[in-house]
Structure prediction request, 225 residues.
Amino acid sequence: ETGVTQTPRHLVMGMTNKKSLKCEQHLGHNAMYWYKQSAKKPLELMFVYSLEERVENNSVPSRFSPECPNSSHLFLHLHTLQPEDSALYLCASSQVLEGRTEAFFGQGTRLTVV
Amino acid sequence: SQQGEEDPQALSIQEGENATMNCSYKTSINNLQWYRQNSGRGLVHLILIRSNEREKHSGRLRVTLDTSKKSSSLLITASRAADTASYFCAKSETSGSRLTFGEGTQLTVNP
Prediction:
């Protein structure tokens, strides 16, 4: 495995539910990311936490709320999602050093909103 | 936007043949990376090429970068059925930590 662990691997939730996705990295990296992968679309960068800063993609709806309590853990809190939010959500981490940004990905959470 | 084009979208070849995938981008990059994704799984980093490099090798992989044409190619030689996956290029901006991914090429290697 890559050293980035995501839980749960699969999640089915109703539109009124609140759930959270969890990501943990054991690589000592200083940046963590949330990506959304929908069918037939490029990976969409949702959020970046780099050197304890948060960078947002302004097109991400507020029903997605990230939390990064420390450099090893990243959460994505979900509430009142829509069916079009069903996708594979990927967490990644990297060590931002001299412009090298190889990303290490988790296995993803397959989210289905019903 | 840094997103560019990847082509082909899909490629089907026989085992033993070479596979070539291309990626283009629009603005300046610090480096360009290639990733592989098996169906429904996370992406795995394959190779990184810096903007001042023109060619790089790793095992059966060969990556080229032409900054004048803003394009890169990934060549997989002597392909195997296990190479079947989606391949993505990702552009790293001149500054910052984010990667921008292309739409990917779905490679199928038939035994």
